[in-house]
Amino acid sequence: MEMLLSGNEALARGVYEYGGEYAAAYPGTPSTEILETIARFFKDDVTAEWMINEKVALEAAVGASYGGARAIAAMKHVGVNVAADPLLTLSYTGVGAGLILVSADDPSLHSSQNEQDNRCYGKFASIPVLEPSDSQEAKDFVKAAFEISEQFDTPVMLRLTTRISHAKGIVTIGERETVEHPGFERNITKYVMVPAHARIRHKFIIERLEKLRAFAETTPLNRIEWNDKEVGIVSGSVSYQYAREVMPNASILKVGLGYPLPIEMIRDFASRVKRLFVIEELEPFYEEQIAAAGIPVEGKKYFSNYLELNPDRVSEGFIAAGVLPTEMAPKAGKKEDVLPRPPVLCPGCPHRGVMVSLRKLKVYTTGDIGCYTLGALPPLEQIDTCLCMGASIGHAFGIEKAGKTKKKTVALIGDGTFLHSGITALASVVYNKGTTTTIIVDNRITAMTGGQDHPGTSRTLMGEKTYAVDLETLCRAVGVEHVRKVDPYNVDETTAILKEEIDRDAPSVVITTRPCMLFPKKIKDKPYMVLLDTCIACGACFRVGCPAISTSSEKNEKGKPKSKIDPLLCTGCTICAQVCPSGAIVELEQ
Amino acid sequence: MENGTTNVLIVGVGGQGVILASEILSEVARQTGLDAKKSEVHGMSQRGGVVTSHVRFGRKVHSPLIPTGQSDVVLAFELAEGMRWVNELKDGGTIIVNRQEIVPPITATGTFSYPGNAEETVRKRVPNAKFIDAHALATDLGNTRLVNTILLGVLSRSLRLEEKTWLAVIERMAPKGTGELNKKAFLAGRSQK
Known about the structure:
The structure holds 2 protein chains of 2 kinds. By secondary structure, chain A is an alpha/beta fold. Chain A is built from 20 helices and 22 strands. By secondary structure, chain B is an alpha/beta fold. Chain B has helices spanning 18-31, 79-85, 118-125, 134-141, 147-156, 163-173, 179-190; strands spanning 6-13, 35-40, 50-58, 71-76, 89-98, 130-132. Chain B is globular. The two termini of chain B are 23 Å apart. Classes of the chains: A alpha/beta, B alpha/beta. Chains A and B meet through strand 8, helix 11, helix 14 and strand 20 of A and helix 1, strand 2, helix 2 and helix 3 of B. Strand 8 of chain A pairs antiparallel with strand 2 (35-40) of chain B, so a sheet runs across the interface.
C-alpha cells in the first residue's frame, strides 16, 4: 500500500514498522511531527513522550535502549546541542536495543536561530549518520539504523533537513516487525563510564569506527548510478534530488551513510569520471573527508555553505564550474516589489500586553526562544536578545553584573522554555545574589511549534491527564521570595507590578496568567470596534502590532489614517482599547 | 510541463488553508497513479507570514522544490501574494488569483503600504491571468470557509486530473460532515470561466 507522507510521518511509520517501542522528544521545528505522528497513530505499540528538554529525551531513550526496547530520541538541530553531553559519552557505552537519535536540521533557518550542520556530530561522537533523501528513505533508513545500531553497538544519527521533514512524497508501507531483546543487565565496564572503563570503551569506539568504515564500502545505503562519465557527483539527502533534477545525465554516487563515508568507493568512482563534484548543503562535510583522502574534488567553490540548496543554486554552480552552458541559468522574471509580511503575534496573544507594558517602562528585555521572540520586530521592538533556549535569565543577570548599562534589564521567557532550561539559571541568580526580574509569560503550552504539551500543562502526549508543575512554587523553592502573578490583559496593573519588581533590590519573578489563544483550544471573546468619529488617528493602537488592526480609509484633518478592527480576527483582548488615548475603541455591538 | 513534471505553486498567507489545498492536490495526483511531491515550510513563517507550497507531479519527481520561473500554474489565495509570486510562472503558464486582500499589520507603521495596483501588475505580465472573487462565491454557497475548495475547483480546469478523483479526495479530506458542501464548492469553482 502507498501513502503520501512527509519525511517526519514516514520516519514515525518506520519506528512503528521496524519494532520501535519507545520515542522521546522535545518539540522543535522541523522535527515536531515525528512524535505527534507516533502518538496519534501508533501509541498502542510505541510509547511516545514529550520530555522537559532534549537532554532528558535522549537520556530516556538511552535508558529504554539499555532496557531492551528499540528507541528513538527526536529533536531539531540545536536540540542536539542540549543533548550533546549524554551523546558524546553514549558513543562510548553503546546501546542495548537499537537506538536512533533523529536530528532535524534547518538549512536556511526557516524557523531557527542558526543553521548548524549536525552531520559534524557524527564525526565528533564517532557515530554513524544516515541521510535519507526523501520520505521513502526516511522510513527505510529507520530499519537500517536500528540494525546498524545493534550490529555495531552504537547509537545512530538519522539526520533530516527541513526539505526532508516537511516535504511529502509517496511511501510504500508495510506491517510491523518486532525484535526480541532482553531487559537491562548489569555490565559496569560498558555502562559505568568512570575513567578506567571509559578508556577501554574509547578503544572500542576507535575499532568500531574502523568496522563501520569497512561496512560503508559495501552497504547498499550507498550506491552508484552510472551515466555519462564527464561529471561524477557525490551527494546525499535532498541535495541528491537537486543533483538528479539538474544533471540527469551525470553519474551520481548517492550517499545514504553520510558518516563514515565509503572513501574507497568514492576513490574508485572518482577515477572513472573526468571531474568529481560534491553537492551538499551547509558544511563541506563530505568534501573535506574526500579531499583529506587525497581525492581531487570540487564542491563549496560552486555550491555555497550558506543557506539551503535548491535546483537553481545547483544549476548556477554547474554553470560557474563550466559544466552547464549559461543558457541553462534559472530564468524567472523580475520579482515585483511587494510589501513584506513578517510573522506577528496573533490577535489576542497574551504576550502583547507584556510587551506594551515593558515599552512603557523603557527597559531592555533579554528574550528567549518562543513566540515572544516576535516582539523583537516592529512595531513592538521590545525584545533585545535571543540566543538559545533558557538564555534570557543568564543574560539579564550578566548585564546586571557587568554594571555598565544604565537602563534596567529584565528577562522574558515562556513557560515551556523556563522548564526546558530557565530554572537552572534562576537558581544561579538567587545563589549569586542577583536582583534580576524574570517574567515568565506562562501561556501553558509550547506555542511556537504548534501547541505541544510540556510538564506544566497537565496533559501527556499520549493524551493522559498528569501532574502540572506549579511555576510559582518552583520559583519559591529555588529561593525567589518575590513571585507575583499578573493578568497581561491589564496593561496598567502589569506595568505597575513590573515596575515594583524591577525596582526591587532582590531577585523576583512575575508570572502572567493568560493561556495561548490557539492551543489547546481557540479562544475568542466579543470583538471590539473603532468609533471613527472619536478616533484621532494618533496611531497608538497600530503600535501594539495586532493583525486585527489596520488603517481605515477615513483620515484626520492632517491626512493621517484612522484605524479599523477586523471583527473576525479580533478576540476582544482589549489591549488596543487600553492604549487608545481618546476612548475610541469599544466593544462591538452585535 | 517539461520532462512530464507539472509544477503548481500555491501561495497565500498563514491561516488561509494553503497547506490543506496542496495536500489535496498532491493526493489527487497520487491517486491518478503519478509520482508526487510537495514541500512547504512550517513554523515561524505561519504566524501571519507568507506561505508557499510547491506541488510537483509526473512520471518521476526528484526535487521537492520547483525551479524558479518554472511553475506551470501559480494559485494565489491572496491578491498581493499573486503579485509577489507572478514571476515564478513560466511562459505560457496559468496564474489564478483570489481577489481577497489581507493587509499585514506592518502597514500600520507607515513604512509599507498594500499595493493598490496588484491586479493591473499581474495582468500586465500575464494578460490572461484569472482573477476570482472566491469569497463572494463562498458566501453565495453559504460558508466563507469554502474559499479553498472553490479555488481548487478553478485550479482543476488548468490540470489534466480527473474530476471524479478530485471529488473522491475532497470528500475524504474535507472536515467531517462537510463533504457534500465541499464537493459543491469544488464544482462551483470548476465551472468558473
